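My convention is simple: the sequence line spells out the residues, with the fold written below as integer tokens. I include a record here:
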Amino acid sequence: MRVFAGCLMAATLLSAPALADERWKTDVGPVMWEDDYNGGAIFMVEIGKGKVARFYIEGLKAEDEARGHYNGYWINTADDGMCAAMMTGPDGTKSHNWGRLSMTFADQTFPATWTMLTGDCMAEPDQVLVGKPDQD
């Protein structure tokens, strides 16, 4: 599976604060709101064999009730390095597989569907990933 760059473009949401168990169904597997960091949120999807992809969404905070459009980056620990430089996230995740992302929440309800565009390394995000609320 090619990095994870075929990922996400997201939406607009006015909601209750995010919960650690917030989850979305996607074509690459279930994505969960894993944690917050100083300046944003970390979403995570397990790729298999102990490997993960994390999405660092700048400006998205659990206590915010209004959600909209965000930028950030992703790091995938599952594949061989494709980028010349290594990227390290605020949580210590690092890899030569990373890229930019642009995310938008779809509506004003909680939970909301999002769409994310991702790109490899410094490329313009152009690969789509959609997350639909997983309420199971």
The longest strand covers residues 40-48. The radius of gyration is 14 Å. The CA atoms of residues 13 and 51 lie 30 Å apart.
